[in-house]
């Protein structure tokens, strides 16, 4: 037991440091985060304490109010931090790949299955909803990338539904912060074994990530594809 205490003590400062760093990053995009959190905590605590005085148990309700105030503050902080993070990622090349890494269990994601010299890119996700192609970049240019990928899908897995999504804020596009939710709302039409078979077939296609040393997440803004366009379109 004595050996576990130093490890626990070392972990706590790490968590506090991470929370502080997250707060600083969130505050850059959300200037009112401090006031909002303070307001939420005070209101929740004040309401429970007031009820405690009314029913004659201010101590019990005060303790409960303190706990609920902390919980409510944590929830609000998490949501606003997530919103700020998506706001900073919005528009960056490869941002959708970072979201796909956390889309949830049951999905197999492959970033950058197609790309052109202008950094327009298509990612692929396979789950019980079928195949989902996620494009980010110029809405007009990604149409050709999506069409080429859907044509390949039809040759390899013609019996599997293929959905296509374009990440962006324009009409008919999906906002980055809503990408995960949109994918999870797609109707489930495949069983677990069918998903496995689909992944095995698509794995034979390969992807750009297996041919190029690309980093995960948002790609450097200065990065350009070599002349010749998409190496998979031969």
Molecular structure report:
- Helix content is 53%, strand content 12%.
- With 234 residues, it is an alpha+beta fold.
- The protein has two domains: 15-87, no CATH class; 93-209, no CATH class.
- A four-stranded mixed β-sheet has the order 1-2-3-4.
- Strand 1 (108-115) and strand 2 (121-127) form a beta hairpin.
- Helix 1 packs across helix 3 and helix 2 (33-55) runs antiparallel to helix 3.
- The longest helix has 32 residues, at 58-89.
- The chain is elongated, with a radius of gyration of 23 Å.
- It starts with a helix and ends in a 23-residue tail after the last helix.
- Mean pLDDT is 79; it is low at 208-215 and 225-234.
Main attributes of the structure:
single chain; 53% helix; 12% strand; four-stranded mixed sheet; alpha+beta; 234 residues; 2 domains; disordered C terminus
In terms of topology, how is this protein built?
Elements: H1 4-29, H2 33-55, H3 58-89, H4 95-100, E1 108-115, E2 121-127, E3 130-136, H5 142-156, E4 162-167, H6 179-184, H7 192-203, H8 208-211
Helix pairs in contact: 1-3, 2-3
**Mean pLDDT, nearest integer?**
79
Helix content: 40-55%
Oligomer: single chain
User: Taking strands numbered 1, 2, ... along the chain, how are they ordered across the largest sheet?
Assistant: 1-2-3-4
Biased composition (Low complexity): 211-234
InterPro entries: DUF4191
Keywords: Membrane, Transmembrane, Transmembrane helix
Transmembrane segments: 33-53, 59-78
């Amino acid at each position: 037991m004595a050996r576990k205490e130093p490890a626990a003590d070392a972990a706590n400062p790490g968590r506090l440091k991470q929370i502080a760093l997250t707060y600083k990053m969130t505050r850059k995009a959300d200037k009112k985060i401090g006031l909002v959190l303070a307001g939420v905590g005070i209101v929740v605590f004040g309401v429970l304490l007031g009820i405690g005085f009314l029913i004659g148990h201010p101590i019990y309700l005060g303790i409960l109010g303190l706990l609920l105030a902390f919980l409510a503050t944590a929830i609000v902080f998490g949501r606003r931090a997530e919103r700020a993070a998506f706001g900073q990622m919005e528009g960056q090349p490869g941002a959708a790949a970072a979201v796909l890494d956390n889309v949830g269990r049951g999905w197999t994601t492959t970033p950058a299955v197609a790309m052109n010299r202008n950094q327009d890119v298509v990612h692929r996700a396979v789950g019980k909803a079928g195949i989902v192609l996620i494009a980010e970049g110029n809405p007009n240019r990604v149409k050709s990338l999506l069409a080429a990928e859907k044509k390949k899908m039809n040759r390899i897995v013609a019996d599997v539904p293929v959905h296509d999504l374009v990440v962006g804020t324009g009409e008919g596009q999906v906002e980055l912060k809503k990408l995960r939710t949109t994918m999870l709302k797609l109707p489930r039409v495949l069983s677990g074994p069918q998903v496995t078979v689909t992944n095995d077939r698509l794995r034979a296609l390969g992807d750009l990530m297996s041919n190029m040393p690309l980093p995960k997440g948002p790609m450097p803004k200065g990065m350009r594809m070599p002349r010749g366009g998409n190496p998979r379109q031969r």
